[in-house]
């Protein structure tokens, strides 16, 4: 340009790409720049449009009912205090108690947990079971902790969020880097405050009232779907 500014020409589709394919590619790139929760709501809005959902209902279902974020300071074996963040998001409980796993991973953040909680609402509704949707997580590198450290993180997290949990309120389950052993710790910690409550978690060991087939349930579900 004469004034020295530089303009960027509009992006051109490859010569062998149809206009429809080009539009899809642009849409995919735009979604890649969205947050996890925005991406979930993008697909929710498309479904809501097809259903003719009203604005009032849509506004409720696009946001979470409750979001809990807690600080988890733990002294690890390096003798330093490490401060982790724990999250529990309850998206919608219109169909019943909130249901969803708790994951331990260093990249866990509130946006991811929001998105996963929302997806749990739709999953429980689609299969017709009387539960709502929730999700939880701690941004802890579980694979780098020893058993004592992992147990300490687990118990501290449950101790800090126990007021929003319960068999008729919100029921955690295993997820990334959590398993039956972690569920047993959660169940025990909750029991210290509320008495013996096996129904506070699913995915616990068989010896503590867990269900046979739980370990393979997710994989079997994928096979049934595809």
UniProtKB/TrEMBL annotation:
EC number: 1.4.1.2, 1.4.1.4
SUPFAM superfamilies: Aminoacid dehydrogenase-like, N-terminal domain (SSF53223)
Boundaries of every Glutamate/phenylalanine/leucine/valine/L-tryptophan dehydrogenase dimerisation domain copy: 66-191
Enzyme class: oxidoreductase
UniProtKB keywords: Oxidoreductase
GO biological process: L-glutamate catabolic process
Start and end residues of each stretch annotated as Disordered: 1-24
Recorded GO MF terms: glutamate dehydrogenase (NAD+) activity; glutamate dehydrogenase (NADP+) activity
Ranges of Polar residues composition bias in the record: 1-10
Pfam families: ELFV_dehydrog_N
Record family assignment: Belongs to the Glu/Leu/Phe/Val dehydrogenases family.
Name of the protein described by the UniProt record: NAD-specific glutamate dehydrogenase NADP-specific glutamate dehydrogenase
Species of origin: uncultured Solirubrobacteraceae bacterium
């Amino acid at each position: 340009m004469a004034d020295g500014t530089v303009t960027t020409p509009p992006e051109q589709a490859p010569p062998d790409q149809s206009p429809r394919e080009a539009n899809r590619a642009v849409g995919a790139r735009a979604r890649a720049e969205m947050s996890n929760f925005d991406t979930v709501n993008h697909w929710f809005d498309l479904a809501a449009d097809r259903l003719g959902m009203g604005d009032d209902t849509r506004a409720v279902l696009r946001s979470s009912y409750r979001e809990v974020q807690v600080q988890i300071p733990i002294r690890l074996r390096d003798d330093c205090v490490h401060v982790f963040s724990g999250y529990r998001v309850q998206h919608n409980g219109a169909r019943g108690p909130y249901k969803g796993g708790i994951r331990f991973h260093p990249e866990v953040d509130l946006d991811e947990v929001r998105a996963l909680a929302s997806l749990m609402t739709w999953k429980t509704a689609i299969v017709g079971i009387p539960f709502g949707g929730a999700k939880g997580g701690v941004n802890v590198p579980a694979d780098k902790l020893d058993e004592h450290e992992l147990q300490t993180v687990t118990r501290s997290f449950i101790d800090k969020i126990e007021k929003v949990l319960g068999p008729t309120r919100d029921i955690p389950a295993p997820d990334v880097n959590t398993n039956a052993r972690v569920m047993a710790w959660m169940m025990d910690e909750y029991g210290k405050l509320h008495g013996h409550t096996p129904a506070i978690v699913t995915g616990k060991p068989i010896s503590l009232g867990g269900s046979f087939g739980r370990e393979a349930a997710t994989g079997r579900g994928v096979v049934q779907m595809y």
